[in-house]
Design brief:
2 domains, Heat Shock Protein 90, alpha+beta, 7-stranded mixed beta sheet, 9 helices, histidine kinase
């Protein structure tokens, strides 16, 4: 009742203002007659009372609804009134509730995925730590090399976790620059040269020195490193080289990373960019969270790059990144 009175106050004030204006006009033109004015005011008051009564009873279901405590976000909203405004508010609240529930469910799904990834990551990090402890207890001839390899696995895992935590707020961490493609890729390979040497897989660069791209250096390094790590991981023992090529096409640079490794089964190809999808290779070789290519696809989406992946089982895999760029003399 109190809510309706607050809603009706502007109408009552407008009605009162009309009567005051009418009184002033009649008084100024010497037309004021108390009995006639009282009759007019009475008729208007009755009309106002009838109107407010109609409004009150037509809006009563909505008023009750607005004053009823909400017990659950899944509580349905019932359109109990045919009054246009009340029905419109009911429909609006229903749409708002739907959006809120979808948003809440999406956040819960993300939180579950985050917990799942963290659990898998912790499990993976235990393996190199156990190996390091074993190496320290029983050092062999390759003591330093084996230790370095496990430390590199820890560092790569920590970097992936760090980038995954920053991914949702990537927009606040972007800095687009004009970068020389060959220089950037060479620095990434030099940073991870032990990865290639350890697995006896060697990179072959076919990048023209005049090619440049527009991207964020830090995030682009993560993307290329993840693709190179995958290429080496599934090429070791099966192939010998990873080819990194780039060509200019209509104001774009297409960067290709190609290996001659085990390849990806055809049935797994449509899902390789899905979160937590490990596929047959992930189960066969182990130590796969299924998040690497998912992170790559999300970062490329944020950076405005496109990524494509082709593979033939037993032949190899080709990843293509399409970037904004060109030649130095353009």
């Amino acid at each position: 009742m109190r809510l309706f009175f607050k809603h009706a106050i502007p109408g009552v004030l407008f009605f009162s203002g009309q009567l005051v204006a009418l009184f002033l006009i009649l008084w100024l033109y010497d037309l004021y007659r108390p009995a006639a004015f009282f009759y007019i005011a009475l008729l208007n008051a009755i009309a106002l009372l009838i109107y407010l009564s109609y409004r009150f009873f037509s809006m009563l279901p909505l008023l009750k609804r607005l004053q009823t405590p909400i017990e659950s976000v899944a509580e349905p909203i019932r359109a109990d009134s045919d009054e246009p405004l009340a029905a419109a508010v009911e429909h609006f609240l229903e749409r708002q509730q739907t959006v809120f529930r979808n948003s809440l469910f999406a956040e819960r799904r993300k939180e579950k995925e985050r917990h799942r990834y963290v659990d898998q990551w912790i499990h993976q990090m235990k393996t190199p730590l156990s190996v390091i402890e074993l190496i320290l207890e029983h050092p062999g001839e390759q003591f330093q090399a084996d230790l370095r390899h496990e430390v590199d696995r820890l560092r790569i895992g920590l970097d992936q976790m760090l980038y995954s935590s920053r991914l949702e707020a990537i927009e606040t961490d972007l800095k687009a620059e004009r970068l020389n493609l060959r220089t950037l890729v060479t620095s990434i390979i030099n940073q991870e040269k032990r990865l290639f040497v350890k697995n006896k897989v060697y990179p072959k660069l076919e990048l023209a020195p005049e090619l440049y791209i527009y991207t964020d250096s830090k995030w682009f390094r993560f993307v290329v490193l993840q693709l190179l790590t995958n290429a080496v991981k599934y090429t070791a023992g099966h192939g010998h080289e990873v080819y990194i090529r780039a060509v200019e096409q209509a104001g774009k640079i297409v960067l290709t990373i190609e290996d001659d490794g085990v390849g990806i089964p055809k049935r797994d190809l449509p899902r390789v960019f899905n979160a937590f999808f490990t596929g047959e290779n992930g189960r066969r070789y182990g130590e796969s969270t299924g998040m690497g290519l998912y992170f790559v696809s999300q970062i490329c989406l944020k950076l405005g790059h496109t990524i494509e992946l082709d593979s033939t089982e037993g032949v190899g895999t080709t990843c293509r990144l399409t970037l904004v760029g060109g030649k130095q003399d353009d």
